[in-house]
Amino acid sequence: MKNLITRAITGIAFVAIMIVGICYRGDVMVGLFAFITGMTIWEFSGLVNATEDVDINRFITTAAGVYFFLAMAGFCSGLTPSAVFIPYLVTIVYLFISELYLKKKNPLHNWAYTMFSQMYIALPLAMINLLGFHGDGTMTPAYDWLLPMSIFAFLWINDTGAYCSGSLFGRHKLFPRVSPGKSWEGSIGGGLLVLAAAAAVGYLNLHDSMEHVAALTIPQWMGLGLVVVVFGTWGDLVESLFKRTIGVKDSGNILPGHGGMLDRFDSSLMAMPAAVIYLYTISLM
């Protein structure tokens, strides 16, 4: 019972911080997700450094990921030119060349996990800047919270729907080798709930007095919801495979009752890039 209360309090606080951070202002969103990026890469680096023959530079790897996020935010918001990415590229080159001189046991593992942290965490989280900042023909693109908030709302609704449906009707395992607790019934139930929520968002958006950049039709909103469900589920499974590979149950304990940062953002690491691809495909961004 105590663990359930702790989990509920942590969950409510987490959702509240995310909603305020995303919906209040663009600079607040950037600050929040720069922090999330740093904490997630720091956690990831600690996990891989605890495995055999891995010793990546935790501080520089984390700093590089945070810098990339901020550089993407600056570029997407129109505050900085594309040259802002040059220091990040220099850092990546340094992380490769430094292994020539450090004489560590397995440089190949260090290179692989260092680059994995950037591709798996820094790059996907930076995509929220593409979702939030939109050019309007001026030098300073406007920030619109609707798309970033919708992605996370769909992920949360999918998790809730999948848990409830799976608990009630779950019979057929979705991916037992990686995540024995997930069922096809749960995934379908979560997906249907998200489609309903996406249709509702589309309807409200069409009748909203506020002007949003994301002028999607109801079918397009439902398509976005489906993309988030499918790739969010894959994101969850990818993190489960990662944890099984290195032999841990939770990625951390920073969020009481919910595990670590990777545990909380695993679905978004696949859903946000997929959402960007989807939106670019239908020529909205």
From TrEMBL:
- Which GO MF terms does the UniProt record name? phosphatidate cytidylyltransferase activity
Reply yes or no: does the keyword Cell membrane apply: yes
Q: Which domain of life is it from?
A: Bacteria
Q: Which reaction equations make up its catalytic activity?
A: a 1,2-diacyl-sn-glycero-3-phosphate + CTP + H(+) = a CDP-1,2-diacyl-sn-glycerol + diphosphate
Per the record's keyword annotation, is Ribosomal protein included, yes or no? no
Q: What is its EC number?
A: 2.7.7.41
What Gene Ontology cellular component terms go with this record? plasma membrane
Where are the bilayer-spanning segments?
12-36, 56-76, 113-133, 145-168, 188-206, 213-234, 267-284
Single GO BP term:
CDP-diacylglycerol biosynthetic process
Q: Where would you say this protein principally sits, based on its record?
A: membrane
Q: Subcellular localization, per the record?
A: Cell membrane
The cross-references to Pfam families, in alphabetical order and at most eight, read: CTP_transf_1
Bilayer disposition of the protein: Multi-pass membrane protein
InterPro entries, A to Z: PC_trans
Where does this protein act, in terms of pathway? Answer: Lipid metabolism; Phospholipid metabolism; CDP-diacylglycerol biosynthesis; CDP-diacylglycerol from sn-glycerol 3-phosphate: step 3/3
Which keywords does this Swiss-Prot/TrEMBL entry list?
A: Cell membrane, Lipid biosynthesis, Lipid metabolism, Membrane, Nucleotidyltransferase, Phospholipid biosynthesis, Phospholipid metabolism, Transferase, Transmembrane, Transmembrane helix
Q: Which family does it belong to?
A: Belongs to the CDS family.
Q: What is this protein called?
A: Phosphatidate cytidylyltransferase
